[in-house]
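Give me the fold.
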Amino acid sequence: MIHIREAVIVEGKYDKIKLSSLIDAVIIETDGFAIFKNAEKLALIRRLAEKRGVLIITDSDAAGFKIRGFLNGALPPGQVKHAYMPDIFGKERRKVLPSKEGKLGVEGIPPAAIMESLARAGVLAEQAEVPRRRVTKADLFADGLSGGEQSAVKRRAFLKKLRLPQRLSANGLLDVLNAMYSYEEYKQAVAEE
C-alpha cells in the first residue's frame, strides 16, 4: 500500500473503496454534483488543501471533468494536484449498462493504470511522513466522542467547535483528525470543551 500525503478527492463511494485498497490516504467523496451545493464539504476540502494539499481523481468523462473544474476553481492552485485516469472503454461489474460515454470510472480502472496516473501526478515519489501518534477509535471512545451515552451529541458539538461538517461519522471524524491535527492538538481541542 502506497502512502499519499495529500487528501484524495473522488466522486463517489465506489471510487473510495477502490482507492482504499491501493493507497493509504484520507479519501473524501464529493457525492458527485452534490459538491456544488454542499458548502460544509467544500469548506472541509479547502481546509484539507490548506493543511496538506489535495489530489483530485475523477472519472475521465464529462461529469468528472466538470467536478474537477469546479474544485480546481474553488481551491488555491498551489495546493491542488491532479491524477487523470486514462480513457478505458467498458462497463463496471456492478453496473447493468456502461456509462453514457462508455468509459470506465475510477472504480473500474485496473490498479496498474491507477498507480501509473498517481506516479504522473507526482505523489508517489515523495518521502513518507515521520510516523507519529495517530488518533484512534479508542481515543474517541475514551473522550466520549464515540460508542457511549450521548457520544453523538458530544461528537456534533466537537465537530461544530472544529468547524467540520456536522454529518461526519465517527470514522469520518477519525480520518479528518489524523489528516489535519496531531494527537497533541486533538487532545488539546478535547480538553478545551
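Residues 137-191 form one domain.
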